[in-house]
Amino acid sequence: MSDGISRRTVVRTAAVLGAMAAAGLASGPTAASAADGTKTWKKPAAKRPETTPNGWPVQANTDRDTQVWTRAVAGAGLTVPVWIGDPEAILLHVVRRYHYEVAEIRSGELAGWRRAGRAEAGTPEANLASGTAVRIRPGASAPGSLFPLERTTVRDILADCAGVVRWGGDDARADESLFYLDAGPQDPRVRELADRLRRSEAVPGRGAGHPVALAR
User: Which domain holds residue 122?
Assistant: First the structure.
């Protein structure tokens, strides 16, 4: 009898231990993973920065801890907040040529960066929030604000920028005061144009403000 009880006890004990072992194999790694967090938790993906329609990151302020700083327009007595570096070289070239060759830009007639939300999202004007656009003589933004020769000069400025700069006068909702980068930060044309303009400015008799022959 005792032998029978012992055998039953052994069999029952073995069955219980087997079940516990099986459960341990099934749940052990999961429990361990939950404990150390290596499989249960995943690091959240980094949030992509908000960008303006031309692909440049929106900047929160100017002259502090962003890419936008107020820069002087050489020879014009003007300043404008723009994205420093290549965008700065390109946009200031546009401003200088406009000032010298299209019409004088007076104090208060030049604007650059402005806080996001002040322009309708997705519109060309929204590019101001990244410091990659400028408005020249905002009071003359309506279609037809420029005389024919002035328009011809603007076309020459755009051609000089090889498609990297777009004029708001060509947009569906025309704004003849707006000029903005039409290429993103990874587009090699931005660096190529900026380098070319910097080299040109370094050569006496060339660069913005010097006579150019316009196509009639």
Answer: 68-201
